[in-house]
Design goal:
The protein is mostly helical and 330 residues long. Helix 4 runs antiparallel to helix 5. 77% of the residues lie in helices and 0% in strands.
Length: 330
């Protein structure tokens, strides 16, 4: 049913413009096929789409796909596979190739599990990022190759955040969810700014970790805290893993100016390249506080002392003069 809904949607987007250029009778055969298909009259639907495939070669692959769908809906799985084979052979450049292969797999699952497995392997070679088919593959080989099945379930679990990820988790035991797996899963949530869930997973990883992943886990945890605007906690955690740049950023966001300046001063003395970026951030804070001269001074320091930040410092200096009404200096 999901596949048929998908094809109807694709038809609306891509077929309608082509139909508008065809003759009236040809259009009607296609419309009749759609009408018969929606009403469950599959035999008549097939007849309509077969006529449309001949009369409308520009959308012949879509007509052939509907023939396949009609056969599948009717339970004529061998005919469906035969029809998709025609589509794949006759319309080699069709954008429906992926959908046709999906239909072929679904029908083969009903008729011949081993053949379906072979089709899935070939499909994943061509479309390796299809998580739904990957899950199906892992499920089918669970008895035959449990190690490979488990590896696939684990990858599906930590690499996504949707329904397939949750389904994959059900195929695993608690012992399979190691600190490394939790770390990767947390990083996945961090990437999509799901900071609360990321924090929970980082903390779970920390409990299971034997020390190998501690720094990476704490770094991710600090980022999740920063993302939740819990800047004071983030600053402590960044400091614990010796990340002065992000610790200073956190202090600055938290309004802990003395702590920020202390870290910044140490970085400047050490000629740390990241100190230039922090000086610019500090200058912008001074600007927002109305301390124009101090902001200009700090930007000049960044430009002169840290070549990697010189361009950004110069641009911000010009912008600062501009918004302050000094267009000549800007």
């Amino acid at each position: 049913r999901d596949m048929r809904s998908f094809i109807f949607l694709v038809a609306f987007i891509f077929i309608c413009p082509a139909l508008s250029l065809a003759g009236g009778k040809d259009i009607q055969t296609f419309k009749d096929g759609l009408d018969f298909l929606s009403k469950g009259n599959y035999e008549k639907a097939v007849e309509g789409f077969q006529q449309a495939e001949k009369a409308l070669p520009s959308i012949g692959d879509y007509a052939r796909m509907y023939i396949s769908i009609a056969h599948m809906e009717e339970g004529q799985y061998e005919k469906c596979i035969s029809s998709t084979s025609v589509l794949l052979d006759k319309y080699k450049g069709s954008r429906l190739r992926k959908a046709a292969l999906n239909i072929e797999i679904k029908c083969s699952l009903v008729l011949d599990g081993e053949k379906a497995l072979s089709l899935i392997e070939r499909y994943l070679d061509e479309f390796p990022s299809d998580a739904e088919v990957e899950y199906l593959y892992a499920y089918l080989i669970k008895a035959k190759d449990p190690a490979k099945s488990k590896k696939t379930f684990i990858e599906l679990y930590y690499s996504g955040t949707g329904a397939i990820s949750e389904k994959a988790l059900k195929g695993l035991s608690p012992a399979d969810i190691t600190a490394e797996v939790l770390l990767k899963k947390a990083l996945c949530h961090l990437k999509i700014h799901s900071y609360n869930e990321a924090e929970r997973l980082f903390l779970e990883a920390l409990k299971k970790d034997d020390g190998r992943f501690k720094k990476d886990v704490l770094s991710g945890l600090a980022q999740s805290l920063f993302g939740q605007k819990r800047y004071k906690e983030a600053a402590i955690t960044f400091s614990d893993i010796n990340d002065p740049y992000n610790a200073a950023r956190s202090h600055l966001r938290a309004g802990e100016n003395d702590a920020f300046k202390a870290v910044l001063d140490r970085m400047v003395l050490a000629n740390d390249a990241d100190a230039g970026k922090l000086l610019i951030s500090y200058a912008l804070e001074k600007r927002d506080e109305g301390e124009f001269e101090e902001a200009i001074r700090v930007l000049a320091q960044a430009k002169e002392s840290f070549p990697g930040s010189a361009e950004d410092a110069l641009w911000n200096t010009g912008w600062l003069y501009y918004i302050n009404g000094d267009c000549k200096k800007a």
